[in-house]
Amino acid sequence: MKIKIIMISIFILTFLFSSEGQKKLQTSPGGYHGELDFPISWKRYYSYAEWTKIMHDLARQYSHLADIQSLGKSRMGREMYLLTITNKSIGKAEDKPAMWVDGAIHGNEVNGITCSLYLAWYLLTRYDYDPYVNHLVNHYTFYVLPGLNVDANDSYVTWPNTANNPREPYRPEDDDGDGLYDEDQTEDVDGDGELSMMYIEDPKGDFKFSSDGRRFIRISDPNDPARRFRLLGPEGFDNDGDGRLNEDDLGGPDPNRNFPADWNLPQGHPYPLSEPETRNVYEFWLKHPNIFASFHYHNIGRLIMFTTPPRLQLSLTPEQRQQRQQQFEQRLAELRQTNKYAQLFDIEVPPEYQEDLRVQTEIVTMGARILKNYRPTPSGRVGQAQAASYEMVGRYAYLIELWGTPDFDADENGDGRVSDEEFLKWIDIDLTGEGWINPHKVKHPDYGEIWIGGTAKKHITRTPPARYMEEEALRNTHFVLYCVSQFPKVEISEVKITPLTSDLFWIDVTVKNDRAYPTSSDRAVQLGKATLDKLIFNSSAGISLIELPAAQSALDLINRTSFAPVAPGKEIEFRLKGHDARTFRYLIKMTTPEGWVEFKVISKNGGQDSKRLTIKASS
Questions:
Q1: What global pTM score does this model have?
Q2: Which tens digit of pLDDT belongs to each residue from 216-230?
Q3: Domains and CATH numbers, the chain
Q4: Could you tell me which of 399, 375, 401 has the C-alpha nearest to residue 388?
């Protein structure tokens, strides 16, 4: 009897990867992409009342794509609002793989609010115009929390503050041990809306005016006859009369040391998740296992900090260590001959974590390409949010250190650093003079006549000036979207049927994931939190599966590539890594002249796909 195998139907289930029609599709890069459908200026910092109003307005205008909710209240009673963005008409948010993005866990790092809010705005306004954004919003979920440390965030934007304060949540603390709480804070002595440094004339002082009169510089020559000044410290008053300034400022634990991953008491006191802000976030994570990866916006330094698996501590001699370093540098140089953004990290991880290190290296290599002047580096732990996301829950996580000194503009001599003179020149030319507090006399109630100034203003060093804000937010948004585009996608790439006898057939089914990320992280596997991928066999009444012991089977003993594991039953569980394919072999028996077989792959994070084939036998 001659056997003829005819494929007469293929059904592809694309729950996560179907396309949705667009009313205003734009294909030209010079065209309109919805920017004015929801007009907003990205050249300013918004207060809590303003940025939460923007969130509510976005949720109202794009109600088919966005929902807003509160994760709970901060210590001072502010709601922590979260936007959930996805196309609700083709699936619930919690049923789709998700990206979590938060900003400004440190109160003074408010450009993280800008980047997070910009991401939400970009997704919603471009949805009808941009096929790339349309696809991602249709099939994935974005959880966006612009401000995490909302009390300190609002204070930093609204009131005069130094570049570094307030940083912590508003947990009252008695830093100077006088029984009073937060009573001696930095204050705007001269009422100019900025906080700078205070100096007083003193013949024995260590400082003098710079030659241009705009800075106080330290005196190096003890015989220097210059007019001398003594540094008093940041602007403020001696509110408790103890002769000291600003010694009991706003306090509390570092919120990015308050998560339960490598937590320690000195930095994350008094206990893990003691702060309502961190607890609200962590509880949401635990209730939403669909979160696949997370971004956490900080400043400063232009760093792409990524979580890494536990590292192996190698016992090497100094000579071995030097040789290893030379080999590492040589390999990295080779990689950068073809890709100047290539990354390689001189760390060793256990075998069971190799995939996590591989994919993180691949992702941050593209991150360096997208962000241009950001440097990838492994992140720390010590109770940090991104560490908890990976170590406690098994999600890939990134801490982005935004902004930094304007070296790309200000470093005129190319030595890799920005001198004081170059910095002031950048302010004068690129910022047209904005951003510097010149020294000026002020009457102080405790010290009499003093001088204030000689420093940059608030939105210069830790947070970018207005003209740089949108470009940074745009590049970071593109990096987030790239990561989501590399979430796993499973598909049945090939089904091959080989007759064995007149009624027996081998069927080889190849499933693949061509994206960078695996269908679950190594860490999730080690934690027992990974949901394995599943391949399911089904057939018509005339076809049955012959279940065989688990083994490798070969159709051609000479060709080693023909080896494949035999399917032990109708359901097979496995895990696809990034850029991975697996082939499984089934032995079926036909008792009728015609029938069909169907294979369906199901992945929690990679979606679903299926193929059905009809088999006819004819003489």
A1: 0.93
A2: 999 999 999 999 999
A3: 3-14+489-617 (2.60.40.10), 52-156+254-307+379-404+465-485 (3.40.630.10), 174-249+415-459 (no CATH)
A4: 399
